[in-house]
Amino acid sequence: MITINKMKITNLEVFNNGEEISSWICDLNDEGEMESNGGQEFLFIYLGKPYTIQVSWDDNVINPNDKAKEVNKEMLEEGSFIYEELKKADKIKC
How many other C-beta atoms are found inside a 10 Å radius of the C-beta of residue 86? Predict the structure, then answer.
C-alpha cells in the first residue's frame, strides 16, 4: 500500500506567505447583521490555490495552526462575491 504524504497548510502560513486578493468584515452585531468590530476575513492565493483566513480585531490570525480552508473553485457560483474577487484578480479562468 502506498501512502501519499499530504502537507498541512496552516492559516498562519497562508497569511504570512500568500498573495492577498481581497478582505471584508466578518463581525456580526446583536441583530446578526454585518458590522465592523475589527475582525476581517481575507481571500489569499497560496501555491496556486485560493484560501480564506479570518483575522481578529487585534490583527491576529484566528486558529493560526489549524489547516487552512481552501476555497473550492468548482463550487463557486458565477457572480458570487468570492468568484468575482478571484475573477478580478485573474485567478479564475472563465
Answer: 21
